Amino acid sequence: MKRFFYIILAMALAFSSCEKQPVNQNPGGGTTPTGPTTPQEPEKNWTYYYVNNFAYDLMDTYYLWKKEIKAQLMAWTDQEEPIKKVASIRYKDNSGNDIDKWTQVTDDYKAFMGDVTGVTTTYGYDFYDFEQDKENTNRVLATVRYVYPNSPASEAGLKRGDVIVKVNGKDIPIIWQGTAGYLDTDFIYDQMVYSSNCTLTLKDGSKVSMTAREMIENPVIMYRVIDNEKGQKIGYLHYTSFTAESCASLIEACQYFKSEGIKELVLDLRYNGGGAVVAEEVLISMLAPRANVEAGDIFETEVYNTEYAAQMVKMYGPEAGTSRLSFQHDFRFDGKDYHFNTEDANIGLEKIYAIVTGDSASASEALICCLKPFMPVVLVGKQTYGKYCGGYIIGSDDYFQDIIDYYTENHTNDSAEAIEFGKNGLKYAKNWGLYVMFSRYADKDGVTLCMPDGIKPDYTAMDNPQDGFQFGDPNETMLKTTLRRAGFTVTESSGSQQQAPARFDTGVEIKFQRREKPGMVRELTSLPGHRRDPQIPRISNDRYTRAE
Description:
This protein has 2 domains: 1-7 and 36-118 and 258-463 and 517-548, no CATH class; 119-216, Pdz3 Domain (Roll), CATH 2.30.42. 26% of the residues lie in helices and 24% in strands. It has 14 helices and 25 strands. It has helices spanning 42-62, 70-74, 82-89, 109-117, 152-155, 185-192, 247-259, 277-287, 290-294, 306-316, 363-371, 396-409, 415-428, 477-485, and strands at residues 104-106, 119-122, 125-132, 139-147, 163-167, 172-177, 180-183, 197-202, 207-211, 213-216, 220-227, 233-239, 264-268, 298-303, 322-324, 328-333, 336-341, 351-356, 377-381, 389-395, 433-442, 459-460, 510-511, 521-523, 545-547. The strands form 5 sheets. Strands 3, 4, 5, 6, 7, 8, 9 and 23 form an 8-stranded mixed β-sheet that branches. Strands 1, 14, 15, 20, 21, 24 and 25 form a 7-stranded antiparallel β-sheet that branches. A 6-stranded mixed β-sheet has the order 11-12-13-18-19-22, with helices on both faces. α11 (363-371) links the parallel β18 and β19. α7 packs parallel to α8.
């Protein structure tokens, strides 16, 4: 039996080998969802019903490890708790440890997308570096790592290196389990990240009050040219996230470096966990040698599951899954059209020094991996995170709206039922989303440097936000090490270089599970690879989002 995509044939979805359906395939008939029901919570049952149909259908199409989790897919029912279900079936090793740490369902797609678009309600700061307080061992202290320009945090005077001792008058607590201490993650996110108002008490006794607002977080934190008494010049760019909105700032920075005749660049990716694929493509076109960009050389390749790979080749030919260097960048992202040309911003670099840590992931690792075949890239810092696969971010609202749009325009015997299914999906599964891993990325030769555990640096350096220096200061700990490795010395600037603080002064390990953010994001003008009857035209769709 031929496999069809659910939004094309609302009733008769079946596996290609005529295997059983794991979810109810009669969504529009007004029947009660199958599986366990709770009469007191009928709306939740319907939500689970539509979200499970949505998530299963897309996992069954795109999931990179589809073959490995076939049995779990077959056992999927429409009354599972979707978030837990996807977390439980994503690919694991024989010991039950996640190989895939990223595929997930979210019940707040808008907030999830805010992490990758750069448009979010925020205070505009980032903190980490938790250490146990020497004087009060039941609490921890947090250090500010960076502050976005023109944010509530920057306007309140918060800066890198500030040590937070209280939040809204309360200590940041430790949850003890025997002799093991864990950070209270809910307190941290509820009070310090997702609240509307926040007052921080700093180590020096001062207080900083902020009100969150919706803003575009510009991840181009700063860029400058550093020179010395020998007449040498080197560029410095601190970049925290690959977002579509940052492309203009990246071009501005690279045009400046070009005008200054920069041949070597320090690219600071120490906190960059990923972002828009389109931003990666824009940036790499300005860093790579001009000749390679002009030639349109392949710089990235992708590996898919067998069925999806066949569909991609059928639709796009033998170069399906490859990306080529280009100066012209025209794309649609989050409903907005962008047009950039980077020809006059290609710097003409001869060498890059990348500052990296365990927080450097996804697009950061892909950029490094894909640049190395074209030019020397020296890594300074700590081993990177190791996110070597890419995914689609797909919103349930878009998914169900597409069903309605298609069957409104293309009448079939199943149109009424399909449209009802789409409308009910919009009602009961509103603002859900799926982030599903669909590919492994590699350089032009098929090499994935960060698989499985990240890229090891050429030279080791420790990050120290409390060293007394801001980003771009030649005496900031990691930049100073990098400049030395580049054979570049500068006169000491003012500041109070300090010993890096002990993380756990009492010898007790305090564990913190930082919430995962999605990686690189690219919006497609159409979503390829759907299971479709070839006699039915492919749906034009510019609302789906691809992430890595």
